[in-house]
């Protein structure tokens, strides 16, 4: 995926531009691949797509989680809209180096809120994973 030299020109492989509504779909270009075709890979990288089709695996940064308070449509990530859907099974928070110092206190508040939003009816929490970016 990404830019590939084709003779004297460059082509962008793996990204298919869609219209109505406008978005980019990630797709394999090998016809033998199960992710070839209009469905593509089951990935969303734009907020609106994530809200429309909530994932079971969510990878985000501290600033992305901070936006939850400003984006009402983010409720869908945690199954709070009708019809209700289950919250993510796994959340990976990237860029842990950002939480040292004063920002760490704010992250702790968001983390507690996110854990509560992820709590299922049976009280079980999904796995929360913190990964340090190299």
Q: What's the helix count?
A: 3
Please provide the count of β strands. 7
* SSE topology string: EEEEHEHEHE
Nearest-integer average pLDDT: 78
Q: Which percent bin holds the helix content?
A: 10-25%
Strand portion: 15-25%
CA-based gyration radius: 18 Å
Q: How many angstroms separate the termini? A: 22 Å
Quick overview:
The chain has 134 residues and is an alpha/beta fold. The protein contains three helices and seven strands; from the N terminus they run ββββαβαβαβ. The protein has two domains: 43 residues, no CATH class; 91 residues, no CATH class.
Describe it.
The protein folds into 2 domains: 43 residues, no CATH class; 91 residues, no CATH class. The C terminus is likely disordered. A hairpin with a 4-residue loop joins strand 3 and strand 4. The chain is globular, with a radius of gyration of 18 Å. With 134 residues, the protein is of the alpha/beta class. It has a 3-stranded parallel beta sheet with strand order 5-6-7. It has a two-stranded antiparallel sheet with strand order 1-2. It contains 3 helices and 7 strands, in the order E-E-E-E-H-E-H-E-H-E. It is 21% helix and 24% strand.
List the helices and strands and how they pair.
Elements: E1 2-6, E2 9-13, E3 15-18, E4 23-26, H1 47-52, E5 57-61, H2 62-66, E6 90-94, H3 102-118, E7 127-130
Parallel strand pairs: 5-6, 6-7
Antiparallel strand pairs: 1-2, 3-4
Relevant terms:
7 strands; disordered C terminus; two-stranded antiparallel ribbon; 3-stranded parallel β-sheet; 24% strand; 134 residues; alpha/beta
């Amino acid at each position: 995926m990404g830019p590939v030299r084709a003779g004297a020109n460059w082509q962008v492989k793996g990204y298919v531009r869609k219209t109505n509504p406008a978005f980019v779909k990630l797709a394999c270009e090998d016809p033998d691949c199960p992710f070839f075709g209009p469905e593509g890979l089951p990935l969303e990288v734009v907020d609106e797509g994530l809200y429309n089709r909530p994932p079971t695996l969510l990878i985000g940064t501290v600033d992305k989680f901070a936006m939850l308070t400003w984006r009402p449509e983010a409720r869908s990530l945690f199954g709070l809209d009708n019809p209700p859907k289950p919250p993510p099974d796994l959340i990976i928070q990237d860029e842990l180096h950002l939480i040292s110092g004063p920002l760490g206190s704010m992250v702790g508040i968001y983390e507690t809120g996110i854990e509560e939003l992820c709590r299922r009816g049976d009280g079980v929490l999904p796995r929360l994973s913190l990964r340090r970016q190299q």
